[in-house]
Amino acid sequence: MKFKVETLPNYRIAYVRRIGPYGPGNIEVIERLKKWAKQKNLLKSAILFAIPQDNPETTLPENCRFDACIVISKDYQMDDSICESELSGGKYLIYEVKHTAENIQKAYATIFQDLQSKGYQIDNKPILEKYTGDMINNPYCEICVPVKP
């Protein structure tokens, strides 16, 4: 699988969290975030992230955390209707993947083999699914895997 190496900056984000098994419920959280962002006129040139915070192989499904995030500017005035945080940047392997459950599962299976065969070591940060520009409306995403420098 092809990938590129990028250094992502730190991002200020607004997010919605869901706790429970990964799957169709995650889509509802993303739609709720997009609805909020549209009301605030933030969606047009947005960078969105879907972040599965936990490994479902080591965390009980009912305890898995999933965050739907949108990058906001440093000076954007937040209100109490949504959570705020920061994503720490760093070095990432970026894979462009068709956004279907099957393709994403295949990608995750391949990514970890890639890491080992290419001599990369995963960093202790969550893997990110990134949507930018027209990727919000088309069926592709970028899987961003944090690696140690």
Describe the protein in words.
It is a single chain. The protein is built from 2 helices and 8 strands. It has an 8-stranded antiparallel β-sheet, covered by helices on one side. The radius of gyration is 15 Å and the shape is globular. 22% of the residues lie in helices and 36% in strands. It has a single domain, classed as Regulatory factor, effector binding domain (Multidrug-efflux Transporter 1 Regulator Bmrr, Chain A), CATH 3.20.80.10.
Q: What layout of secondary structure does this protein have?
A:
Blueprint: E1 4-8, E2 11-19, H1 24-39, E3 47-52, E4 65-72, E5 83-87, E6 90-98, H2 101-117, E7 128-132, E8 140-146
Antiparallel strand pairs: 1-6, 2-4, 2-5, 3-4, 3-7, 6-8, 7-8
Task: Give the gist of this structure.
By secondary structure, the chain is an alpha+beta fold. 22% of the residues lie in helices and 36% in strands.
Strand order of the largest sheet: 1-6-8-7-3-4-2-5
Q: Give the class from helix and strand content and strand pairing.
A: alpha+beta
The outline comes out as globular
CATH level 1 class label: Alpha Beta
Here the CATH topology equals: Multidrug-efflux Transporter 1 Regulator Bmrr, Chain A
**What level of helicity do the residues show?**
10-25%
Order of helices and strands: EEHEEEEHEE
Mean pLDDT: 90
Radius of gyration, whole Å: 15 Å
